[in-house]
Design brief:
The chain has 471 residues and is of the alpha/beta class. It has 19 helices and 16 strands. The strands form four sheets. It has a seven-stranded mixed sheet with strand order 5-11-10-9-8-6-7, sandwiched between helices. A five-stranded mixed sheet has the order 2-12-13-16-15. The longest helix has 20 residues.
Length: 471
């Protein structure tokens, strides 16, 4: 056994050999990885080899020569050297996939981020005066143009937006909310908890399924700071159900001298009603109904970067801007750049639908997706026909991100059954490919939805499937 241990190559020899290897498809050359990182992974690989020696996996010293170990060592080091945060192929058909990064940015937004990162900018510099400026000026005007609001502000996400509004306008006083709107927005993050952290006191009215205008009227006291309406974008109540309309709440707020706040959640500038997706209101429609402050997400259905957008009447927005908490919640230059570029696209609704990936994916027709599914299936059969069977099957996609719950989007799935092993095993192995490929299981088959895969990704999909089936 001592001879086997001595046969292992030195770390320096291994490092030199790895540095001279050419790059492989989808991977940078190991020469471009910092030597200290490669050294750590080589030591880890050699520790694995020592464990295998103790386990009796080797008989001859020649088996442990550098030339024999190099291919396996290179694969090990490449896998360990990959960034932890990296690209994933989304074949699930869930467009705004929270766990996979939500919305994809338009090309113009990606370029805007690159410019913001690569060069100095006028982030807080007024080019007209040469004096200090406001970072919010870059997006406030276009936000008002798109939404119809008097003023706007952007923070780092919608939960932060709601908290900032409540902290500014309602701290130490009561906010009236319908019981049917005390939603959880994900990760056990709930509206009552956001309100508690803001310092406002929750005043629940109505019942879970039915709330009337008189419930709000009877609850108003001298301690009331605002009326809050939370749009239930991530679930539906059906059957014996009633909620007070935004228009009714706005009228009541004006009558009693109280601001009306609307937490829209996953806001949208695009009207999807023509797709049979229900009556989900757009931000423009909500602002037009007259609430004093509206908050919504910049990513999700909007298709921009993660951000919490606050729009409304100038008098209220100006107060919110002055809140010291605003600095702790503000967005950085990359988010600003991406958001401005995304908002500019909405100046032309058809251009936005084509160029914002989230909109393009949601609005893709069933016929278009069937053609693309056939294209992907043909490629998989041609390249991997000996490893799997491939078929097409009608299925459904989802918008995701807490938007349009229970609204299916018709699609065509590519169903893949591996010859060796099960679909469940293949799904698991594909999480360890480069890049990882995430799909879904239906009827004991591994399924890919072309709605969330681009044609340019089809070769990567086949590469990942090949890696997964060979593991």
């Amino acid at each position: 056994m001592s001879q086997l241990y001595r046969a292992l190559p030195s770390v320096d020899r291994a490092l030199d050999a790895l540095a001279n290897l050419p790059a492989v498809r989808g991977e940078d050359s190991l020469f471009s990885v910092p030597r200290a990182i490669v050294r750590d992974h080589v030591n880890g690989f050699l520790d694995v080899c020592r464990e295998e020696i103790r386990g009796g996996l080797y008989e001859l010293p020649e088996q442990l020569a550098l030339e024999s170990l190099l291919p396996r060592m290179a694969a090990y080091v490449r896998a360990k050297s990959r960034p932890h945060f990296r690209r994933v192929l989304n074949g699930t058909g869930v467009v705004v996939h929270t766990n996979l990064g939500r919305s994809l940015l338009a090309d113009t937004a990606v370029e805007a981020v690159r410019e913001a990162c690569a060069h100095y900018s006028n982030l807080e510099f007024d080019l007209a005066t040469g004096e200090r400026g406001s970072r919010y000026s870059h997006v406030e005007r276009i936000l008002c143009q798109v939404t119809g609001a008097e003023a706007g502000l952007v923070v780092n996400n919608n939960a932060a937006a709601v908290m900032l509004v409540l902290d500014t306008l309602c701290k130490g006083r009561e906010v009236i909310v319908s019981r049917g709107q005390l939603v959880e927005i994900g990760g056990s993050f709930r509206i009552p908890e956001v309100m508690e952290k803001s310092g406002a006191r929750l005043r629940e009215v109505g019942a879970t399924n039915r709330t009337h205008l008189r419930d709000y009227e009877n609850a108003i006291t001298e301690e009331t700071a605002a009326l809050l309406r939370v749009h239930t974008s991530n679930y539906r109540i059906v059957g014996f159900h009633k909620e007070v309309t935004l228009e009714e709440m706005v009228a009541l707020g004006k009558q009693r001298g109280l601001p009306v706040l609307e937490d829209l959640g996953s806001g949208s500038f695009h009207d999807f009603s023509g797709m049979g997706m229900g009556d989900e209101p757009t931000v423009q429609q909500v602002v037009g109904a007259g609430p004093d402050v509206v908050t919504f997400s910049g990513d999700k259905v909007l298709g921009g970067p993660q951000a919490g957008i606050i729009v409304g009447r100038k008098a209220w927005i100006d107060r919110i801007k002055k809140n010291p908490m605003n600095r702790a919640l503000r967005i950085d230059k990359m988010t600003l750049a991406a958001l401005e570029a995304t908002l500019r696209l909405y100046a032309d609704p058809e251009k936005a639908r084509r160029e914002i990936p989230t909109l393009a994916m949601i609005t893709a027709s069933a016929d278009e997706l069937k053609v693309r599914a056939k294209k992907l299936a043909t490629r998989v059969r041609r390249e991997l026909g000996e490893l799997c069977t491939v078929a097409l099957h009608e299925g459904a996609s989802r918008v995701g991100g807490g938007s349009f719950p229970e609204r299916d989007l018709p699609t065509t799935l590519v169903r893949i059954m591996p010859i060796a092993g099960s679909a469940t095993e293949l799904k698991q192995r594909l999480l360890d490919t480069n890049p990882p490929l995430v799909g879904r299981l239906e009827d004991n088959a591994f399924c890919l939805d072309p709605r969330t895969l681009t044609d340019a990704e089809f070769p990567l999909v086949c590469d990942a499937l090949r890696q997964g089936m060979h593991k």
